[in-house]
Structures
1.
Amino acid sequence: MAKIVVSDTDFGDSLFEKKMVEAAGIDFEAINCEGDRKPEELIENLRDADGAITSYGDYDAAVFAALPNLKVVSKTGTGVDNIDVGAATKNGTMVCNVPGYGTEVVSDHAITLALCVLRRINEMDSDMRNGIWNFQKCRPLGQVRGRTFGVVGYGHIGRAVARKANGLGFRVVVWDRSGKPGRSTPEGFAYVSLDDLFAESDVVSFHTALTPETHHLLDANRLSMMKPTAVVINTSRGAVVDTDAVAEALRANKLWGAGIDVFEDEPVDPNAPICKAPHTVLTPHAAYWSEESAIELRTRATQNAIDVVLGRKPENCVNAEAFTSAK
């Protein structure tokens, strides 16, 4: 019997996946769902698997070389930067993802972080719990009106963030690799160059995939282009933003605030510079999660794996060319 293995998710249990997989007539196994992320662990756990459902595992070329019978790796998310797609394709392994599932909740989270930083909500809440009734202590406090919101990356989530920011009263500008400065998005937001976006925005929110070109897209050099009153928001991929450079800018009063949900190394070290920096709101890679989005995510990721194992073309696949050679 064909077999699908869940090996490294953070859902707490895999009963949801188990029910779907077994109902499709496929054997199922869940192995230490909060661990098993290293290649050697994945190889050991997936030796007899036809499909894998994964969140964070490091699926490098060695994994695929050692698992010639693996038909599919189904990612419980959008980005597949933890999977060597080229090696998977060479192996005849389909790599599936779940684009669009978190558009509304991630955009909600990005906007929430921006407003919390501008209004210093977490700082005032902490003061009150320590007997301090004095909002003046947290000044300066910002507002929406009169501020420019820069959206870096204009996919599904970037569009939703722009829509919501505009609805609140921000002026919105956009940078995207496919957008030409001087033109406008279909919604009427101005495309600008990346340097211009950093220079004129009061809030810069990142919604781009992690690629070699976007690694540390925000670094010390680009931070120096920003207003000292600006706010950085990141709900995309941790390595898109150099958080050590952000922490230094915050300490030096060269940046007003930051709202960060994703980090290069997770879980983040509580002694990391960003955790010690002032005027920050930090969340533990939670932007993608709502009870509603989780159901959609888990359903679609599991169905992708089931479809491939049963010889059907999945709904979402980043290397469709592997379908013809899938085992």
2.
Amino acid sequence: MSLFRFANQDYLYFLLAIPVLLILWLLNNYRRRRALLRYGEPALVMELIPDRSGIRPVLKLILQLMVVAMISIILARPQFGSKIEEVKRQGVEVIIALDVSNSMLAEDIPPSRLERAKQALARLVETLANDKIGLIVFAGDAYVQLPITTDYVSAKMFLSMINPSMVPKQGTAIGSAISLGIRSFSPGTEKSRAMIIITDGENHEDDPIAAAREAAKAGIVIHTIGIGSPEGVPIMLNINGKREYMKDPQGNTVITKLNENILKEIAVTTNGKYIRATASTTGIEQIFAEIRKMQKQEIEGKIFTEYNEQFQIFAGASLLLLIFDFLLMERKNRKLSGLRLFRIKI
């Protein structure tokens, strides 16, 4: 078993330089072509500069962009986990149930309800140290996306992959998510278990209050975060590359509204807290402040404690690309023009 990670993943932002460099090259190439046209007809000008190559500058650009990508990866320090150790910590177990129904694509909480929740959860995971975390996704059904774990790197990875298409049945089965959460905690952690449900609470299809009562009997505290607008907004979908509002079978634009009442009742039933998310804050930090007040107990977990660096292959590849780029001239070499190693004229 091994886990791949980037030790300094912020350096991957250097990859954004690639499209910028490409645009600058295209603009410069366009400017040079315009300059050549001022000297006369394009065909005649090309005859006057027979050594000019059209493909070599493009090849050099590709090589240089590949080097930039390789250097970005090297700086980010790719690693494979090589050793797992069991650790014991004092903490709590928290399962986050995230609504991934189509209504979570509404953009009243920019960039969308779902993306805003994912961003906040990713920041939260970065602050964890001693607690276990699990992840459930739900729409018409509920599924365990990440079993309860102390592997925060995996938690962030699974968070980034969440989207509505991963749950085929639409709806908002909050009760199913709670029932699945009850079964997903580690055995023997009756005093330090909490759930956080993030949803717009709309169109709940089962009985979430009955499920909340079962959670309360099991000693599980459920905190709820309502994300969305009570006034209602349309749902924006990406259909065949076009942004269109979601329609019902009659062709009417679907309006999604936040249902706060059901979320408040779930929280009250389990002695939890309800917070309504806004554009400026999701409320996750406040919820976790409440969770940290809970009685902590010793929890066991497995984590990677040693990692093998994997930058060497990227360093070797970038060196070869640089050598090739250095040897490849932008103009044709007359002395080598008769040499046809691959019988390809460039």
